[in-house]
């Protein structure tokens, strides 16, 4: 899919790989990275990793897409949460890959309608569109009160 009109470009610079640092061009994000112990790294306290950064971006982007889907369906949302779990492991081809599990809670909406909104958001969200057919993405929709 080709972008026909670009509105914004985010920029981040990594130095030192999985055990280095990442900063954005405006310095709003400047974090230390550390490979988790589960992946054979030091798992330094206070440091993050690429999978956590991806999870944060995907969760925020998906909730934004859910807002678009809700507006299109004339549904008012309140108290929505999106929690992203990004898995890392060996892929079928012998390399490494990631998976995504998104847990979306939409309180105050009937379960069927919530699932329809989540499916619509999955079609809107740039992260979902970018990963479609590339990684396994599982969606879990709930409607529990906050």
Short description:
The protein is α+β, with helices and mostly antiparallel strands and 146 residues long. The protein has helices at 50-72, 111-124, 126-131, and strands at 12-15, 21-24, 30-32, 81-90, 96-105, 136-142. The model has no long low-confidence stretch (mean pLDDT 96).
Sum up the structure in keywords.
alpha+beta; 3 helices; GMP Synthetase, Chain A, domain 3; 3-stranded antiparallel sheet; 146 residues; 6 strands; single chain; 3-stranded mixed sheet; N-terminal domain of TfIIb; 29% helix
Structural account:
This is Peroxiredoxin, Ohr subfamily. InterPro entries: KH_dom-like_a/b (IPR015946), OHR (IPR019953), OsmC/Ohr_fam (IPR003718), OsmC/Ohrsf (IPR036102). One of its GO terms (biological process) is response to oxidative stress. Belongs to the OsmC/Ohr family. It comes from Hymenobacter psychrotolerans DSM 18569. The protein is α+β, with helices and mostly antiparallel strands and 146 residues long. The protein has 2 domains: 1-48, N-terminal domain of TfIIb, CATH 2.20.25.10; 50-142, 2-Layer Sandwich (GMP Synthetase, Chain A, domain 3), CATH 3.30.300. 29% of the residues lie in helices and 26% in strands. The protein has 3 helices and 6 strands. The protein has helices at 50-72, 111-124, 126-131, and strands at 12-15, 21-24, 30-32, 81-90, 96-105, 136-142. The strands form 2 sheets. A 3-stranded antiparallel sheet has the order 1-2-3, with no helix packed on it. A 3-stranded mixed sheet has the order 4-5-6. Strand 2 and strand 3 form a beta hairpin. Helix 1 (50-72) packs across helix 2. The longest helix has 23 residues, at 50-72. The N and C termini lie far apart (37 Å).
């Amino acid at each position: 899919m080709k972008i026909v009109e670009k509105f914004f470009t985010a920029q981040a610079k990594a130095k030192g790989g999985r055990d280095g640092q990442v900063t954005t061009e405006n310095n709003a994000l400047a974090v230390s990275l550390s490979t988790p112990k589960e992946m054979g790294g030091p798992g330094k306290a206070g440091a993050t990793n690429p999978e956590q950064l991806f999870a944060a971006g995907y969760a925020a982007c998906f909730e934004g897409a859910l807002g678009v889907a809700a507006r299109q369906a004339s549904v008012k949302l309140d108290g929505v949460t999106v929690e992203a779990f990004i898995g890392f492991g060996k892929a079928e081809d012998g390399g490494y890959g990631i998976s995504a599990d998104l847990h979306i809670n939409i309180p105050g909406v009937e379960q069927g309608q919530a699932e329809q909104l989540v499916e619509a958001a999955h079609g809107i969200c740039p992260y979902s569109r970018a990963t479609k057919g590339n990684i396994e993405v599982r969606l879990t929709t709930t409607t529990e009160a906050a």
